[in-house]
Write a structure and sequence with these properties.
Layout (H helix, E strand, L loop, with lengths): L17 H11 L4 E5 L3 E2 L39 H4 L2 H9 L2 E4 L6 E6 L2 H10 L4 E4 L4 E6 L5 E5 L2 E4 L5 E2 L9 E2 L2 H4 L32 H17 L4 H16 L7 H13 L4 H15 L2
Parallel strand pairs: 6-10
Antiparallel strand pairs: 1-2, 1-3, 3-9, 4-6, 4-8, 5-6, 7-8
């Protein structure tokens, strides 16, 4: 997973709406993107998902939990898949889009949204300097690491990370710092997964009401082997391939508690053989767990 919000390549895509071009550039950087309508609001759910008729389960999957083609369910629609971003089902939303948003938690980031001059002054006194983006009313301070999102943690201060979206307003200035304890301490609720330092591989706990689908060890073994092969065969977009492979493995095998550190270690080994660092593997694994709500 990429560690920067800098857009470094200027693609010539004159036939595409400007906001879609931006979204595709963000996707290349590993930042899940989505369109926003006027008022900085996400587009409404499709007919199938209107008024949450689909049940919104699991709510964390990109491009809609019901595999619906439209950009549904707010931040959960954000994706790095260019085929989804450029699909006909998203075309109308891009034509009507007023801005682009991204899912900070999906890119291993946390945005401290400072809404006024007082909040900015407080941040300058209490938080370490980091990459800063000017907004219409204040500033976004962007840190490397994920946590749960919270609004109104103090006057004029919101935290946008997992299960949230932030408007893309440009790459900003300054060098990005690691997510500090001072930001995590602002959250009233317990944080989800902070990626501020190399961490021990986390094996998902087995929920008490989940029935194991692995009738034989061969089923799980086949899933891990397929994941290893997918990573080994990747010739480009290694970061994205590793993350999406982790997401697939976790969604299929992570809910019943059958995954072990040995299984996860095999996936990490395959990724590292393609040039990924251990830190990249840990961030991708943590992001996949966060995406699935584990």
């Amino acid at each position: 997973m990429t560690q920067t919000t800098e857009i470094t390549r200027d693609h010539e895509l004159p036939a595409l709406p400007v906001h879609l071009r931006t979204a595709l550039q963000l996707a290349e950087l590993g930042l899940p993107a989505m369109p926003l309508r006027a008022g900085k609001k996400p587009f409404g759910n499709c007919r199938t998902c209107k008024n949450s008729a689909c049940g919104d389960r699991p709510h964390m999957l990109a491009a809609g939990p019901c595999e619906c083609p439209a950009p549904c369910h707010g931040w959960a629609a954000a994706t790095t898949d260019p085929e989804i971003l450029t699909s006909p089902a998203w075309a109308k939303a891009w034509r009507q889009a007023a801005a682009v948003a991204y899912h900070p938690g999906g890119g291993a980031l946390t945005v401290v949204d400072l809404d006024n001059a007082g909040a900015i002054a407080w941040a300058r006194e209490n938080l370490p300097a980091t990459k800063t983006v000017t907004t219409t009313r204040g500033e976004h301070w962007i840190y490397l690491g994920t946590m749960t999102s919270h609004n109104d943690v103090r006057p004029g201060v919101d935290i946008k990370s997992a299960w949230s979206y932030a408007r893309w307003l440009g790459p900003g200035t300054g060098r990005m710092a690691l997510l500090p304890d001072a930001v995590r301490a602002l959250a009233v609720k317990e944080v989800a997964a902070v990626v501020s330092a190399p961490a021990t591989i986390v094996v998902p706990d087995r929920p008490g009401d989940v029935v194991c689908r692995h009738r034989s060890p061969a089923y799980l073994e086949r899933g891990i082997a397929m994941g290893e092969q997918r990573i080994k065969e990747a010739s480009e977009a290694i970061h994205r391939t590793v993350y999406r492979t982790f997401l697939v493995v976790l969604s299929a095998h992570g809910w019943c508690g059958c995954l072990t550190e040995n299984h996860i270690g095999r996936l990490f080994t395959a990724a590292q053989a393609k040039g990924e660092s251990l830190r990249h593997c840990e961030i991708a694994w943590s992001n996949a767990r966060t995406k699935l709500g584990m």
